[in-house]
UniProtKB/TrEMBL annotation:
<dbReference type="GO" id="GO:0005829">
    <property type="term" value="C:cytosol"/>
</dbReference>
<comment type="subunit">
    <text>Homodimer.</text>
</comment>
<dbReference type="GO" id="GO:0006206">
    <property type="term" value="P:pyrimidine nucleobase metabolic process"/>
</dbReference>
<dbReference type="InterPro" id="IPR000312">
    <property type="entry name" value="Glycosyl_Trfase_fam3"/>
</dbReference>
<dbReference type="InterPro" id="IPR000053">
    <property type="entry name" value="Thymidine/pyrmidine_PPase"/>
</dbReference>
<protein>
    <recommendedName>
        <fullName>thymidine phosphorylase</fullName>
        <ecNumber>2.4.2.4</ecNumber>
    </recommendedName>
</protein>
<dbReference type="GO" id="GO:0009032">
    <property type="term" value="F:thymidine phosphorylase activity"/>
</dbReference>
<feature type="domain" description="Pyrimidine nucleoside phosphorylase C-terminal">
    <location>
        <begin position="257"/>
        <end position="331"/>
    </location>
</feature>
<dbReference type="InterPro" id="IPR036566">
    <property type="entry name" value="PYNP-like_C_sf"/>
</dbReference>
<comment type="similarity">
    <text>Belongs to the thymidine/pyrimidine-nucleoside phosphorylase family.</text>
</comment>
<dbReference type="InterPro" id="IPR017872">
    <property type="entry name" value="Pyrmidine_PPase_CS"/>
</dbReference>
<keyword id="KW-0328">Glycosyltransferase</keyword>
<dbReference type="Pfam" id="PF07831">
    <property type="entry name" value="PYNP_C"/>
</dbReference>
<dbReference type="Pfam" id="PF00591">
    <property type="entry name" value="Glycos_transf_3"/>
</dbReference>
<dbReference type="InterPro" id="IPR035902">
    <property type="entry name" value="Nuc_phospho_transferase"/>
</dbReference>
<dbReference type="GO" id="GO:0004645">
    <property type="term" value="F:1,4-alpha-oligoglucan phosphorylase activity"/>
</dbReference>
<keyword id="KW-0808">Transferase</keyword>
Length: 348
């Protein structure tokens, strides 16, 4: 979901209109709306007329479901939670595609996660979900492509809300973690291509790189924040984002190479600390977050810091620390080969 904060300004700066209707986090998952609301004043509850105004002014807008746009999805999503059908492929597809098609789009690029941090742990299941969504969009006369991407470890170095906003801004400044930057450019390239802005994906990537390098994408983010009543000063002054009062380290229990992580547990730990929802309606602490210092393939020494926890309440800190520490698999041998960030492309 943090890629939305990067893609929208890149693609809008490149000349396309990017309406985004997003959801909130639940359980171990994050939510784009929750991240946006970490920006002081940012309003995700626009009317249809206000949304159209923002899109006309800057070419991008990010909101949630409304009484006018995909109203049934909100009710069905709540039912999925209490009926244990959150992971049903048909209902996932209906939830996502109802919002996307309601945006009035001509083309759609989907980022479908697979791995330990995704709803779909197996690549085959993620591919099946991607196929269903691509088929749904195609039947509705839209150009659709889905990239099945890795979520066996966190994307980027941050998890949370305020810290992911900061990390997204860093990418728009031409910095930030390599994997987050790479995926954002790849998705932007496909959006430019499907939106007929470029003649190829390669041209789309060049355009994406150019609007980042020239600062146009960053300026587009500032404009979008202002138009949705947010404090655009956070772009240059990240200290204006919510800040956690305390920090705690999670260290390696032994020496070895990181061969795997249970990414879902990171999201669960974040929710336990107040940075997510264990139940629908829970309050979100936007300042809570995790900062990852080590990735799969890295060698760590015993007692070396792997994760920094940003927190405000220590009520469940010990439990969260244990869960995070147990989520790393260490081995004497380094894993062979580097996992591709993009596993499959469906609908191309």
């Amino acid at each position: 979901d943090k890629t939305s904060l990067i893609l929208a300004p890149i693609v809008a700066a490149g000349g396309l209109t990017v309406p985004m209707i997003s959801g909130r986090g639940l359980g171990h998952t994050g939510g784009t709306l929750d991240k946006l609301e970490a920006i002081p004043g940012f309003n995700v509850n626009l009317s249809l007329a206000q949304f159209e105004h923002v899109l006309r002014k800057c070419g991008m807008g990010l909101i949630g479901q409304t009484a006018e746009i995909a109203p049934a999805d909100k009710k069905i999503y709540a039912l999925r939670d209490v009926t244990s059908t959150v992971e049903n492929i048909g209902l996932i597809s209906a939830s996502i595609m109802s919002k996307k098609l309601a945006e009035g789009i001509d083309a759609l690029v989907l980022d479908v996660k697979t791995g330990s941090g995704a709803f779909m742990k197996k690549e085959e299941d993620s591919a099946r979900l991607a196929e269903v969504m691509v088929e749904t969009g195609t039947r509705m006369g839209k150009k659709v492509v889905a990239l099945v991407t890795d979520m066996d470890q966190p994307l980027g170095h941050m998890a949370g809300h305020a810290n992911e906003v900061w990390e997204s801004v860093e990418v728009l400044k031409g910095r930030g973690p390599a994997d987050l930057r790479e995926l954002s450019l790849e998705l932007s390239a496909w959006m430019f291509f499907l939106g007929d802005r470029t003649r190829s994906v390669e041209e789309g990537r060049s355009l994406a790189e150019r609007v980042v390098a020239t600062g146009q994408a960053l300026e587009k983010l500032r404009q979008g924040i202002c138009l949705q009543a947010g404090d655009a000063r956070v772009v240059d002054e990240p200290q204006r984002l919510p800040q956690a009062r305390f920090h705690a380290a999670v260290t390696a229990a032994s020496t070895g190479y990181i061969t795997a992580t249970n990414c879902e547990n990171f999201g669960t730990a974040l929710a336990m600390l107040g940075g997510g929802r264990e139940r629908k309606g829970d309050h979100i602490d936007h300042s809570v977050g995790l900062e990852f210092h080590k990735r799969i393939g890295d060698r760590v020494e015993k007692n070396e810091k792997m994760v920094t926890i940003h927190y405000n309440s220590d009520a469940k800190l010990a439990e969260a620390k244990n869960l995070i520490a147990s989520s790393y698999v260490l081995s004497e041998r380094a894993p062979q080969g580097k996992r591709p960030l993009v596993r499959r492309i469906i609908g191309a």
